[in-house]
Amino acid sequence: MTIKLELLEAALRNALGDQLQSLTQALGEVTIVVKSHDYASAMRVLRDHADLRFEEMIDLCGVDYSTYGDGLWEGPRFAVVSHLLSIKHNWRVRVRVFAADDEMPVVASMIDIWPSANWYEREAFDFYGILFEGHNDLRRILTDYGFIGHPFRKDFPVSGYVEMRYDPEQKRVIYQPVTIDPRENVPRVIREEQYGAK
């Protein structure tokens, strides 16, 4: 472990204290896990503490752990993972928080701390169904407004539930149940007798 990562790890442990559920370091990156009820206050500490100063949220995404580790995962199903950058200290940290309820995953919104979280949280809601408490405009961002379900969940069917097409008689786009029959594509192999021979 480099001195820089040791300093970051010590600063994180000192600043977060009991809010830090776990801290791991692998491949030159530090990942911390905080509990969902400590999430907002821990993120504010990460931004405001003089020894940390994570001024920028680089990314935020949802994760579905339902089939993680070949189904051996026994923890909560949904998590939100954020990547933060401290320009002042040239540090990066990954923050993971698990939603307490698998049926209705809810975590605090970060838009009051980092306004850039707005669209990231909308995407996590759209694709995973994770709700962000305190988000003032939580609506779909990449799928259609009439879309049913959350397509990045592991239990979402590969072909989806409905398909969209233009109906020339009604002169509008309509939705109908999926009509695609699942099939396995096998590549066609062409063998040449003299291929590669000189």
Automatic annotation (TrEMBL):
Enzyme Commission code: 7.1.1.-
Quote the subcellular location field of this record: Cell membrane
Q: What InterPro entries does its record include?
A: NADH_DH_suC, NADH_quin_OxRdtase_su_C/D-like, NADH_UbQ_OxRdtase_30kDa_su, NADH_UbQ_OxRdtase_CS
Which Gene3D superfamilies did the record assign?
NADH:ubiquinone oxidoreductase, 30kDa subunit
Physiological role = NDH-1 shuttles electrons from NADH, via FMN and iron-sulfur (Fe-S) centers, to quinones in the respiratory chain. The immediate electron acceptor for the enzyme in this species is believed to be ubiquinone. Couples the redox reaction to proton translocation (for every two electrons transferred, four hydrogen ions are translocated across the cytoplasmic membrane), and thus conserves the redox energy in a proton gradient.
List the transmembrane segments: none
Give the quaternary structure: NDH-1 is composed of 14 different subunits. Subunits NuoB, C, D, E, F, and G constitute the peripheral sector of the complex.
Specify the protein's topology with respect to the membrane.
Peripheral membrane protein
Q: Give the organism the record lists.
A: Herminiimonas contaminans
The entry assigns this protein to a family as follows: Belongs to the complex I 30 kDa subunit family.
Which gene carries the instructions for this protein? Answer: nuoC
> Is Oxidoreductase there in the keyword field?
yes
**Keyword set, alphabetical order:** Cell membrane, Membrane, NAD, Oxidoreductase, Quinone, Translocase, Transport, Ubiquinone
Recorded GO terms, molecular function?
A: oxidoreductase activity
Broadest EC class assigned to this enzyme? translocase
Q: Which reaction does it catalyse?
A: a quinone + NADH + 5 H(+)(in) = a quinol + NAD(+) + 4 H(+)(out)
Q: Which residues form the NADH:ubiquinone oxidoreductase 30kDa subunit domain?
A: 32-161
Q: Which Pfam families match?
A: Complex1_30kDa
Protein name listed in UniProt? NADH-quinone oxidoreductase subunit C
- PROSITE patterns (alphabetical): COMPLEX1_30K (PS00542)
